[in-house]
């Protein structure tokens, strides 16, 4: 967590108001692994506390986990990788974003 905080503070200019942050754990890239919901919540809350900007989550967002991930506080959307290659899967993710 402290590494991500340091990276965010060093990388995000204070004057850019329209900036959106995308976060994906480096160990999740291309692995199909997803952090736990509490882990995602913790990192997004930490980044939001530093920047107060919209944060997108990436890291194996699938139809099966999209609704839960997209409804975590401070998760403002998703970066969808491999699941976007299947129209039905991608549609399920998009619908998950619309559910209350």
Plain-language structure description:
With 100 residues, the chain is mainly alpha-helical. Helix content is 42%, strand content 10%. A three-stranded parallel beta sheet has the order 1-2-3. Helix 1 (2-11) packs parallel to helix 2 (37-51). The longest helix has 15 residues, at 37-51. The termini are far apart.
Features of the shown structure:
100 residues, 10% strand, globular, mainly alpha, 3-stranded parallel sheet, 3 strands
Overall geometric form: globular
Number of helical stretches of at least 4 residues: 4
- In the predicted model, the low-confidence regions spanning at least 5 consecutive residues are none
Mean pLDDT: 90
Q: The biggest beta sheet, please?
A: 3 strands, parallel
Strand order of the largest sheet: 1-2-3
Report the C-alpha radius of gyration, rounded.
Answer: 14 Å
N- and C-termini, Cα separation: 29 Å
The total count of strands amounts to: 3
What class, by secondary structure content?
mainly alpha
Please bin the fraction of helical residues: 40-55%
Strand percentage, roughly?
5-15%
Show the helix and strand layout.
Layout: H1 2-11, E1 21-23, H2 37-51, E2 55-58, H3 66-70, E3 77-79, H4 87-98
Parallel strand pairs: 1-2, 2-3
Q: Brief description of this entry?
A:
The chain contains 4 helices and 3 strands. With 100 residues, it is mainly α.
């Amino acid at each position: 967590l402290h590494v991500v905080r340091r990276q965010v503070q060093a990388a995000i200019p204070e004057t850019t108001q329209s900036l959106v942050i995308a976060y994906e754990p480096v160990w999740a890239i291309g692995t199909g692994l997803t952090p736990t919901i509490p882990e995602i919540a913790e990192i997004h809350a930490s980044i939001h506390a530093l920047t107060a900007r919209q944060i997108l989550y990436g890291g194996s967002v699938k139809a099966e986990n999209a609704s839960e991930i997209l409804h975590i506080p401070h998760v403002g959307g998703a970066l969808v990788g491999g699941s976007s290659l299947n129209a039905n899967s991608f549609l399920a993710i998009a619908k998950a974003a619309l559910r209350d």
